[in-house]
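Input structure tokens:
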């Protein structure tokens, strides 16, 4: 696969689309536990559109016969950057499928196109949000989610071909490297865990991370960031009250300073819920190399941290 540096850059994580066997469980979990606003104008029995801010949706959940990641939507700053990224993807030999007008309207974007990275992870690139509204209201009165130019949050995806896939995201989609973390494997027969973190063209420490182990769901975890530790704590109370299993207890990460916990939602999807994420100068940031994940806490109940 030939990889060339793109003249376009991905600006932020725009949206994520999940497929689920239990749409009703997600309706409750998304609104009553995570505090996302259900966009009732476009949601129905088969698909849910959750809002975090003025965008018409950030998390899209669709009923399916399996639980898996359908797509990660990466926002480009405009039409020119979008076309440059598509050209760069096609240069690598990867297939690109441009979405139709109806599917673009469903996502609340002007144009989008889908492809897969070298590890087979599905993603989309898009430009120019449509349907923006300033009437976001969390059903749990959450003050706000940390989005805006920082994007939706971050996503960690499986990448056993981690070196090749890293080159794809850096050279084709324009990501910058933030941190390279290696931890001893807790599982016999598996390689040491290597998580590589990347920032898009915004101040969030990382919008993407690649984890060198496979994952049957196609998504290791998704971060949602709120504005205070009290919001994190009250969500944790809701998690306990609803008997949702934790993937990791409350703790603080070393590399991005995030104070968070991880919950396993419907279908096995892991959600990191946190605050205090590190902001960086994405144009001048010096990549770090780490061998320690946490300042404190984050006692993992599962062999797949991030």
């Amino acid at each position: 696969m030939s990889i060339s540096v793109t003249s376009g850059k991905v600006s932020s994580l725009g949206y994520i689309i999940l497929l689920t066997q239990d749409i009703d469980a997600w309706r409750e979990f998304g609104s009553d536990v995570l505090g996302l606003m259900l966009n009732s104008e476009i949601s129905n029995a088969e698909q849910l559109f959750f809002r975090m801010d003025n965008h018409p949706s950030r998390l899209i959940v669709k009923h399916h016969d399996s639980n898996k990641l359908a797509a990660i939507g990466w926002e480009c700053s405009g039409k020119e950057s979008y076309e440059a990224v598509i050209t760069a993807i096609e240069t690598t030999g990867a297939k690109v499928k441009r979405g139709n007008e109806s599917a673009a309207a469903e996502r609340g974007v002007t144009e989008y196109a889908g492809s897969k990275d070298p590890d087979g992870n599905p993603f989309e690139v898009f430009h120019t949000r449509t349907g923006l509204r300033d009437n976001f209201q969390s059903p749990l009165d959450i003050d706000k989610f940390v989005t805006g130019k920082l994007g939706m949050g971050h996503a960690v995806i499986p990448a056993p071909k981690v070196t090749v896939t890293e080159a794809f995201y850096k050279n084709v989609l324009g990501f910058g490297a933030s941190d390279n973390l290696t931890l001893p494997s807790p599982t016999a027969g598996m390689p040491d865990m290597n998580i590589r973190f990347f920032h898009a063209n915004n101040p969030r420490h990382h919008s993407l991370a690649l984890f060198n182990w496979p994952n049957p769901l196609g998504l290791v975890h998704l971060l949602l960031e709120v504005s205070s530790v009290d919001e994190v704590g009250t969500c944790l109370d809701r998690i306990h009250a609803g008997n949702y299993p934790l993937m990791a207890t409350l703790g603080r990460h070393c590399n991005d300073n995030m104070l968070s916990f991880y919950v396993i939602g419907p279908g096995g999807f892991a959600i990191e819920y946190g605050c205090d994420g590190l902001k960086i100068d994405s144009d001048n940031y010096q990549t770090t190399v780490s061998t320690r994940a946490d300042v404190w806490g984050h006692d993992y109940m599962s062999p797949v941290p991030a």
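The chain has a mean pLDDT of 95. The longest strand covers residues 10-20.
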